[in-house]
Amino acid sequence: MKNIDTLSSLDGRATLAEVYNELRFEKQLSNFSTLLICWRICVRERELFRYVKKDVTVLHPLGIFSGTGLWMEEILNRYYFTTINSFVYFGAAILLVLIGLRRFTNYVNPDIVLGGVAFEALMLIFMFVVMLFTPSEELETLKARTNENQNTIEDLIVEVGEISRDFAAVVVQLEKLSDSFQEVLKQQSNLTFLIGKLSDNYSDASAPNPQMLEIMKETNFALSEFKNTVNNLNNAAELLKREEIEIAVRKEVERVLVNKLTQ
């Protein structure tokens, strides 16, 4: 809810103009109804939401004299001055026609001419009163400055909104970049671990550790003993082979000798 101290302030006058536009053009009320409601609002109404969509409360009503003056200044003079001026010209034209007919003919009653003069005089007096409540140029200048400041504030709000939107987009992009960076760091850590493991394996392969050297020595010693065992087996096989050959030769010689002796 918006609170306005009084409708005679710049903010109140701007609100009154918005109320008139809504009543006249959005709700399509007649001129008389619009003028009556606006006068009632200027004089005594506090809660404007009874008549328009704006949730505005007037803290200090102006009263009948000040409210009527504001109504004539901001509503009647601003929106209906041309209409009143047209009625004044219309009355002057009627008065000229009546005077002309009275001058050249006898069909026009003097009372009618006097009535035309009275009507024109009343219209001129009414126009004088309306023009007496013409808004001052200083007030128009203040309104223009206020509108300019309001437009500037709205432009600043729009700019701030755009900057906030761009900042939010940058924050989102930074979050995505941070996630990507974390993923790269994780991959780099895994790669560093693999490189370290590969380096250890290469180091073990190029420069074996003492335990591996001991195992290699034992293996070489076992292979040497196995070689010696194989050599011994070969030698034993040679000896057995020679012995078998000698035994076979002996048996053959004995058989030949026995055959010769028996003959």
In short:
The protein has 263 residues and is an all-alpha fold. It has six helices and two strands.
Structural write-up:
The chain is mainly α. It folds into 3 domains: 2-135, no CATH class; 155-207; 209-263. It has 6 helices and 2 strands; from the N terminus they run βααβαααα. It has helices at residues 10-26, 31-43, 63-104, 110-132, 137-206, 210-262; strands at 2-4, 56-58. The chain has a two-stranded parallel sheet with strand order 1-2. Helix 2 (31-43) packs antiparallel against helix 3 and helix 3 packs antiparallel against helix 4. The radius of gyration is 61 Å and the shape is rod-shaped. The termini are far apart.
Helix-strand topology string:
EHHEHHHH
Shape descriptor reads rod-shaped
Cross-sheet strand order for the largest sheet? 1-2
Domain unit count: 3
Distance between the termini: 156 Å
- Rg: 61 Å
Structural class, please? mainly alpha
Which percent range fits the helix content?
over 70%
What is the strand tally?
2
How much beta, percentage-wise?
under 5%
Low-pLDDT windows of residues: none
Average pLDDT works out at 81
* Individual helix count: 6
Biggest β-sheet description: 2 strands, parallel
